[in-house]
């Protein structure tokens, strides 16, 4: 009976210690020493070339910070990496221009980025003719 009590007490101590450790970790991540709430963030600036790992600078009153960030190498440079859009399906091919178009509506602007509400993109029409009868 004493062994069970001892094991139960040990299990409770381990659970309490784990909960306290998780709590301290969350508080440390949330508390960075700044009481400023109105941060203004700049764009993500890659360390080399035009994509990959980089940093963004933020300012609030007299304070400034740098955060690590990443620009995917397939991002739409025209829109910026911090503007996220929901795109419609591609339209039909224009015989005059040889291009397809579609529009995107702003879904999310990260880090207070200045984004256009609606954007339009184009791409060349495919020269391949897709076959719809594959099961014959």
Automatic annotation (TrEMBL):
GO MF term set: growth factor activity; heparin binding
Keyword ATP-binding: no
Function, in words: Secreted protein that functions as cytokine and growth factor and mediates its signal through cell-surface proteoglycan and non-proteoglycan receptors. Regulates many processes like inflammatory response, cell proliferation, cell adhesion, cell growth, cell survival, tissue regeneration, cell differentiation and cell migration.
Species this chain originates from: Copsychus sechellarum
Keywords: Developmental protein, Disulfide bond, Growth factor, Heparin-binding, Mitogen, Secreted, Signal
Domain Pleiotrophin/Midkine C-terminal per the UniProt entry, residue ranges: 80-135
Name of the protein this chain belongs to: Midkine
Signal peptide (UniProt feature, chain positions): 1-21
Similarity remark: Belongs to the pleiotrophin family.
GO terms of biological process kind: positive regulation of cell division
């Amino acid at each position: 009976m004493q062994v069970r009590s001892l094991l139960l007490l040990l299990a409770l101590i381990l659970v309490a210690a784990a909960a306290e450790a998780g709590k301290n970790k969350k508080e440390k991540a949330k508390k960075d020493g700044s009481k400023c709430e109105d941060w203004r963030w700049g764009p993500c600036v890659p360390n080399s070339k035009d994509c990959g790992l980089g940093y963004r600078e933020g300012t609030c009153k007299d304070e400034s910070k740098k955060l690590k960030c990443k620009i995917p190498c397939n991002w739409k440079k025209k829109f910026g990496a911090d503007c996220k859009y929901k795109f419609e399906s591609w339209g039909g091919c224009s015989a005059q221009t040889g291009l397809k178009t579609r529009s995107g509506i702003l879904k999310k602007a990260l880090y207070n980025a200045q984004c256009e509400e609606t954007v339009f993109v184009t791409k060349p029409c495919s020269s391949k003719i897709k076959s719809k009868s594959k099961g014959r």
